[in-house]
Each structure stands twice: as structure tokens, then as C-alpha cells.
User: Fold this.
Amino acid sequence: MKQLLKELRHNPVLWLLAFVPVVLIAERVSPEAHTLLFVLSVLAIVPLAALLSHATESVAAKTGDAVGGLLNATLGNLTELVIAITALGAGEYMLVKASIAGAIVTNTLFMLGASFLLGGLKHHVQEFNRVNARIQAGLLFLATLALMIPSAISQADASTGGFTQKLSLLLAVLLIATYALSLVFSLKTHRELFASAASGGAEEAPWPMGLAVATLALSTLFVALVSEVFVESVQQAATAFGMTPAFVGFIVVALVGGAAEMTSAFAAARKNRLDLSVGIAMGSASQIALFVAPVLVLLSYVIGPSPMGLQFWPGAVVMILVATITASMMTTGGRSTWFVGVLTLMVYLTFAATLYLLPPRAL
Amino acid sequence: MKQLLKELRHNPVLWLLAFVPVVLIAERVSPEAHTLLFVLSVLAIVPLAALLSHATESVAAKTGDAVGGLLNATLGNLTELVIAITALGAGEYMLVKASIAGAIVTNTLFMLGASFLLGGLKHHVQEFNRVNARIQAGLLFLATLALMIPSAISQADASTGGFTQKLSLLLAVLLIATYALSLVFSLKTHRELFASAASGGAEEAPWPMGLAVATLALSTLFVALVSEVFVESVQQAATAFGMTPAFVGFIVVALVGGAAEMTSAFAAARKNRLDLSVGIAMGSASQIALFVAPVLVLLSYVIGPSPMGLQFWPGAVVMILVATITASMMTTGGRSTWFVGVLTLMVYLTFAATLYLLPPRAL
Amino acid sequence: MKQLLKELRHNPVLWLLAFVPVVLIAERVSPEAHTLLFVLSVLAIVPLAALLSHATESVAAKTGDAVGGLLNATLGNLTELVIAITALGAGEYMLVKASIAGAIVTNTLFMLGASFLLGGLKHHVQEFNRVNARIQAGLLFLATLALMIPSAISQADASTGGFTQKLSLLLAVLLIATYALSLVFSLKTHRELFASAASGGAEEAPWPMGLAVATLALSTLFVALVSEVFVESVQQAATAFGMTPAFVGFIVVALVGGAAEMTSAFAAARKNRLDLSVGIAMGSASQIALFVAPVLVLLSYVIGPSPMGLQFWPGAVVMILVATITASMMTTGGRSTWFVGVLTLMVYLTFAATLYLLPPRAL
Assistant:
């Protein structure tokens, strides 16, 4: 507790934690003030993200970067999962899918690219463990395929609804099984392949395990609560700011939803621990694709008004495919410079620009 | 001869050789008993495959893994070629193309993936010569392109029939020329690049060259004879078992047709000679794509009722493309573990599941 | 000057320089003799290309291969830029786009493949700096994406004209910004990564800087002048020779337009300076994609009859995508042999054969 207070004193960002209760109360008091709630929720998510980042680093310091990255991705994606489950219960399948696709694209392009750029501006050339990146790219490629097939078939032939649903269910099971096997591989049988390339230098003193885990859990909970306010307000606030729904779903929600992991990934990149950054960015993307998305398909049989399939809009599938190929190209060498970050971010900007300008009905 | 008998005594699988004459006689006696003939022909192919595997290993032991792999692929694909020529003579172009596409996909995904998995379950990390894999992936990519262009054009514009046929002929000649040059490259000018990474340890005593070659030739002949019975019976037996025609053409025929090479590839993977496995799997796929398929196009002018082109269904082209990309991704590092096998097999399972569930008319 | 004359005496190709004034006069005298002007212009471009090649090598000898390659690509592409600006002023947007797409495909496939083949026939295995190739492949991938998106959207929905134009403008700015950053990266912050792998052996004595730069500038000017005659005559001469417009636009114009750079690239490959060859081929392609093409989009607002967008025919986008993937695959290892050249050229031949046989209206 003392350490937490010390942290609060040293890190002015954490003062923003005051906005956490403010936004939760404001949401009760005036649930219609969308633009206000939007601003408040962003202000509240930022310090929670910073807290989460420090707690995760403390755990990671004791478990190795790869496991730390996995942990971080798991907890970070709780946010996305909670949001998506809420939307699923309300039957908002469009929003569920947009947030899944947007999270995959944002994590593989923006989070990875910005990590490369921020790390590269400080360090001339950075090295990272490419085995982990290669495995994650393979997982993402498989997941992309599993989204592509139902999408292509339902596109080619509208009368295949029942078949697409059955196929989605089967593919969802295959994806979850592959994800489980990937954990066996990275945490058990071939753990040593995921050891960090650069072990980092003198670190800040990490928190004790108990405090770190408790902070992780609590921060995640509050991120989830505040994120919900954010999602409810963002659509209407965005319209007020003149953004298209496609841009909001894919870019804004994904950026704020991933803020916690991004803070960790960027901090690690600045500290020349790019293994952790790449692990968070690509691990988070593949976890959403191979775990969150298929779990939502299965859950839709229980809590949704009707079963949800794995088919997406053609444009979303192409974006996920391009994001996967880009991430694979950029991580294949195991080395990075600031320009690799620029290239990755430019691919993201290309998508963002398209979505921003897209006429509302054309997605 | 003595060695052959000794082999028979040690390897109970070879007792199944008794089914070879049985299936050939049964086919004469009751050609309508499709389900019986199907079961008998599978039982007869398995021991022939095992025999072929041992003979090929004996030859490979004296010629180096890469050449052995090439030899194996050449002889293994005689089966596919004989089947396809029979179908070609009967004007069954649909079956010819399904068996070509299925063989490419099955060899690059199932044979390669299962080799990685079986080898990886026994050995922690396996290394292999990635130069060979890279050349084969390049050949497959070129072949995929040569199938994609006529398919896309005949898809976009149905009135381009004559043009598609002329283009297919020209592309077939380009593919055969490239294949011939690849043999000059791998067997003559740059032979040393194809040397094995790991030279294997103590092997079983290989057969003398004469016995090995004779066994190779005879086994291949019988595999061809039995395969024909198999192909005639499989379609109707499959319907009896409730499988779609697409599933039978792409998966079942390809799995049984490639059984001989698979036995060799899997045995080599278990013995930590992954060079041989990768050589068989990818060499076989590229040989079908760059040699068998274009030869069939040329032969269709001589023995077919009408010229056959290189255009395929869009779904088949996509599967071949994805298989090529997957094989390229998985072999690029020159190292493998069991999970690489799982990933490759999952891509195959995704296709198999889709074909299994696909409504009959939708391919 | 003395050195230039000595060069003229030693290199009989340069005697063809006499055709430069001949073609320029012939164009004034009989502007309708298209076939004659076509032959004369090709005869005049060849020696100019040789001169340009030698001058560039002289400059490159003093600045390092990577910078020399960049210089070469810049000056070589002046030709393409001048041709395209003339066509732009005349409102011939179809020709502008065909020459852009053709130049990208020809540089990445023909120039790169022929360099590998010519170098590989003389040297057993050649090494080159793969960092440069990887950066250029990344740039090309981004540019392909920027062409793909407007093309796909204008294909899917014809009513999105205004949107496509706005998007093209924004993407053009992104591409130019990325290109500028890539120059900062390769010439300033990470210059050392672009140093040559093999520093070449004893060279011919290079020209002094002043003469080299003057020759570069003058040759480029004359190449531009003669190229214009060539472009005006080629379409009708080609019809006389029985070639389709698509084949002329993509293959013939691009081959002759890139003759200067090709001479340099091939000469460097024969001298085992593959860094220079790869730098010219891929640098030229990425410069056309990320600099020439977007500059033309911006210029169309000033000198064109109406704004030009970045959308291309689907077939052209697919060719650019396949060319980018092929170049990326072939350069990823940093080593090359003659067969890598054969594979790359075969992809080019596949496209050339398709365009040659294509019915006029089908592109």
C-alpha cells in the first residue's frame, strides 16, 4: 500500500484516477450527456491504463517477458471481452464484430508500429525474439482464414445461412483448440524458445507479487466499468465530432479499448524490451482472434437472441488479412528501427483514412 | 529376395500384401460391390505404401536425402498421374482437376504438417535444409499463379473460352520448362545446396540397389492398379458413408493416393531426417503442380475428347494459394517443432471441415 | 571530354548515338512514319542508356552502392516522369496509369529477375544486402495497398467517385511522406545498414565527378526527348506488329522506358555487385509507386483537364501485388543463384503471355 502511494506521488498521471469515480457517478446522474461522458471516460481510462502497465511490469519482471506479455494480453483483453459480451446480450452483432476486427487491426498495426517507432527513436537498432512473433503471426494467419471462409461463402451465396452457421461453430472450436495448444507450447513444452533476447538493464524496483496481482485485478475491473460508459457514449459523441460509424467502431473504440496494453507496450519499447512490446501487441491480437471471437460465437447460443457466425464484411476481412501480412513481414527479421514503425503505422493510417472518408453506407 | 522375406517376417503390416491379389480378383468377380472394393483397396494400398517407403529409403540412403526425396516424389506421383490419365481418357475433367488440386493441398498441408507433428512429438526441435523448401515454395507460387490467371479470366468473362485454352497451353509449356530447369538446378549446377542439414544416425541396413529399385518399380505398379479400383469405388462408397463429392475428391482421394509418400515422409520425420520429409511433401506438391498438371493439359489434346484448360474453381485456387503461403511461412525458418505441425494441420482441417459441410452444389 | 571520346572509341554501342539527332529530325520531317520512328527511337535509346549506365557507375563508385542505386533510380525515373507528365497534360489517364503499373511490374520482375539470371550465370552464388531489399519491399507493399483500396472501392460501388478522389489525394500525400521518410532513413539515420555486402573488385577507372554528373544530366534529357517520340509512335507501330494495346502499355513501353536502368543493373550483376542491381530494380519500382504516381495525382489538379485518382484496373492491381510478393520472396534470403532469376522471370513471362493473348477489350 505504501508503495502504491509512493507511486501516486511520483506519477502525476495517476492523479487522473480521480476521474474514475467521477465518470461512474456522472453516468448515473446524467446518462444522456454523451459528449461529457465520452471525455470523462477517456480521462479515467488513461490513469487506469498506466496503473495496469506498472502492475503488469512488476509481474512480468518475476515471470519473464513472454509470460508477462501473455498475462498482459489476457488481462488487457478482458476489457474487450466484457464490452463484447454486453453488446452480444443486446443483440448488437454488428458492434461485436466491428470491435473484434478493429481490435485485431489496431493491435497488429498501431500498437506494434508505434512500439517500433517509439523504441526506434530512442534506440538505434532493436532486437527481439522472432520465434514468438512468428508463432503469433501463424496463429493470426489461421484465424484470418477461419474468418475468410464463412465470409466468402456467405458473400457468394446468400442461401447458405444454415451452413455458414454450422461451419462457424466448427471453426470456432478449432480456433479455441489451437489457442489452447499454443499455450501448452509456449508455457510448457517449448518455454525456453520464448526467453527474451535482451534481458533489459536496471529496472525500477518491482512491486511485490501480491500488490501487483491485486492492482492488476482491480484496475482491470475499473477499466471494464469505465469502458462500458465509454462505448455507450462514443457513438453519439463521435457523430457530434463528425466521424463515421465505421471509423468509430474500428479505430476509436479499439484505440481506447487497447489503451492499457498500449501504455505497457510503449513503455517496454522505450526501455529497449521490445520482446515484451511485440508479445503484448501480437499476443493480444491473436488472443482476440483465436479466443475472444470464437468464445463469443459459442456464447451467442447461450446469451444472444440468435446464434452469431464468424462471417464478416469483405472489407473487414481484407483489413485483418493485410494487418496479419504486415505484422508478419515487419517481425520476420527479429530487428527493428524507427522506419519499420513508420511503415507499419502508414498501413494503419491508410485504413484509418479510408474509414474516415468512407460514405456511411459503403462498408 | 532373402532380405525381402526377412522384411516380411519383421513387419506385420506387409502381411496385408495378401489383399493386393484379393482386391484385383474381387474387382473382376463383382465390380458392383463398391463398398467392399473400397475397403479392400485401402487395405491393399497400405502395405504397398510401406514397401515403397522402405525401398525408397534404401535408394535415398545411397543418393542423399534431396535426390531421394525427388525420386520418392516422382514415383509416388506416378500413382496420381495414372489415375488422372484414366479419368482424362474418360473425359472426366472435373475429377482430374479435383484430384490435382486435392493432391497439392494435401501434400503441402497434411503431409508436411503431420511430418512436423510426428517428428516434433519425438524430437524437441528439428532442423531442415530450408534452401530446398524455399525453392519448392517458389515453384508452387509460380504454379498457383499459372492456375489463378486462367481461372480469374474465365470467371470474369465467360466468352473468353478460346483465349483461356490458348493461354492454358502456353502456361503449361512455361511450367514444364520451369520444372525441367529446377531439376538442372537441384541435381546439377547447385547440387551442394540440397545436401542434408542433419545426416541422420545409424540406419537400418539398406537394401542393395537392385532389389530396392525392383521393389520400387513393382510396388508402384501395384499401387497404380489398386488405386484405380479405389477411385472407381470411392465415389459411391463415400455417398454410402454420407460424404460430399467435394470432400471425396479433395480429401479422401488425395489422402489415399498419397499414402505411399506419406508413409515415407512420416517415417523420415520420426528418424529426425526432416530434410527427406520436407523434400517428399513439397517436392511432390510442386511436381504435381508443375509437371503432372501441365502434362495432362498437353495430353488432353491427344487422348481427351476435347482440350482441357488450366482453369479451376475459385475455391480450389484459393485453397492452393493458402496452402502455398502456409507451407512457405512454416518452412521459412528451417526449424520445426510439434506446434508448427499443429498450425499447418489446422489450416488443412479448416479446409476439410468446409468441404465436408459444403452443400453439394456450392463449390 | 577526352575520357568521353576514349569511351566512344572503346564501346561500339555508343556509335548508335548518331541516331539521337536522326530520330529527332525524322520526327519533325515525317511525324506520320510511325514504324520508322519506332525503330529509330529504340536505336537511339540504347546508346543513351549505355552512357547513362557508365556515368551512374562513376558517381556510384564515389558514393557507395546504395546511394548510387538511389541516384540511378531517380534519374532513370525522370524518363518515366516526363513521359507521364506529357500524357497527363493531354488527358491520357489510361496511358499514364498503364505506364506506372507496367514500370512497377517490369522493374520488380524483369529487371530484378534478369539481374539474378545474368549474375548467376557468371557467379555460382551471389550475396546482397537484404536490409535494403526488405525496406523496398515494405514500401512497395504499402504502395500496393494504397492503389488497391481506391480500386476496390470504385469497383464495388460506381457512385463513390467523389469519395475515391478525396481518398486518392489523401493517400498520395501519405505515400510521398513515407517516401521522404525512407530517404531520411537510408541516407541519414541508418546509412550504415545500406552499405554493400560485397564491395566489388578492381573497377574500370571511374570518370571524374563533373563529367559524370554532366553526362548523367544530358543523357537523361535526351532519353526523355527520344522517349516521347517512342511513345507517340509505339502504339501504332505495335498494332502494325500485331500486339494488343495492353501488351504495349505494360510491357513494351516499360521495357524501353527502363532500358537505361536495366543496362546499369545488368552490368552490376555481371560484376558481382548485386547490391547495386537490387537497389536499382527495387528502388526504381518503389520510387515510381511512392513518388512518381502520387506526384502525378497531385499534378493532375494543376495541369490535367480533371483530377486523376489512384484507382487502377483490377488486373493491374493484382499484377502489382503479385510482383511485390514475388520480389519480397526472392530477396528475403539475401542470396541468389541463376534459378532464382528464372523463377522471377517466369512470373513476368506469365503476365506477358496473358497480356499478349488477351482479347483487346478484356483488361
